[in-house]
Amino acid sequence: MSRSYPPVSIIGAPTDVGAGHRGARLGPEALRIAGIAEALVARGVDVLDRGNLDGPRNPWQPPVEGYRHLDEVVQWNRLVMEAVLAELRDGRMPIMLGGDHCLGLGSITAVARHCRETGKELRVLWLDAHADFNTSQVTPSGNVHGMPVACLCGLGPRELTHLDGEGPAIQPSVIRQIGIRSVDEGEKRLVKQHGLDVYDMRYIDEVGMRRAMEEALEGVDENTHLHVSFDVDFLDPSIAPGVGTTVPGGPNYREAQLVMEMIADTGRMASLDIVELNPVLDSHNTTAELAVDLVESLFGKSTLMRD
């Protein structure tokens, strides 16, 4: 089934300000080198590369009161929020190239605002090895890339929970987390307390990826804005080594393709983050190339014509 997609705007957010390793700031360029724009154009998508946002440098300082680089994280997320919101209001689909996953906070805050403005129902698919539901009280590191989901749901410093002046951006009920396999001890209690909908790898092993995705996508309809936040460490490190926080036991290539194809089948994806790609830790840009391959599947590439 061929499907028409809205015009796409690529937005680079080259920072590792929320991460514990240097290198994620090089992710946007690695994805461009792997041909993300060309791959989408080849699928008939109108693509505009807006270039990179320019935010504060990473100071590489220790945490202050449980948060590392909070001022810089706030500034970067504000830039991302404004850029993503501008594209959505212009009728374009933003693809935010990170950068680390703290940037999902700015991206999803913008999407949530747009949904409020347009009366759409938001569904967020969080493809990740980690729940990213830490707070300053339970974080082992202070790295804000482990906190964006908590901040989006109102747990965190006001500068992040009220990024757009309102807050919290979302309720936990709009998120579905897929591929989770690393949750910190204190974080586990918060995830349970707030009722996060988590399809961890054990559940996926038990019921299979197809059923897990059917459940995660249940209720998605023509009034749904589907946002995909794709942390490349979602993938098993045997196929995607180029990330700072590898966790064994993730989805393999075929499972990851199925996830993307089932999202494409809904026809409802309207915004996308690709984050945590760290080319410094990659081998010959293979992780970036795999990410581009998977994005092609998000835009309808499949083995056979399906209807």
TrEMBL record:
Q: Which UniProt keywords apply?
A: Arginine metabolism, Hydrolase, Manganese, Metal-binding
UniProt catalytic activity: L-arginine + H2O = urea + L-ornithine
Instruction: Report the pathway entry.
Output: Nitrogen metabolism; urea cycle; L-ornithine and urea from L-arginine: step 1/1
EC code(s) of this entry: 3.5.3.1
Please list the cofactors this protein needs.
Answer: Mn(2+)
Tell me which stretches of the chain form a coiled coil: none
Major enzyme class: hydrolase
Record's signal peptide: none
Q: Which Pfam families match?
A: Arginase (PF00491)
Per the record, the similarity remark reads: Belongs to the arginase family.
Q: What is this protein called?
A: Arginase
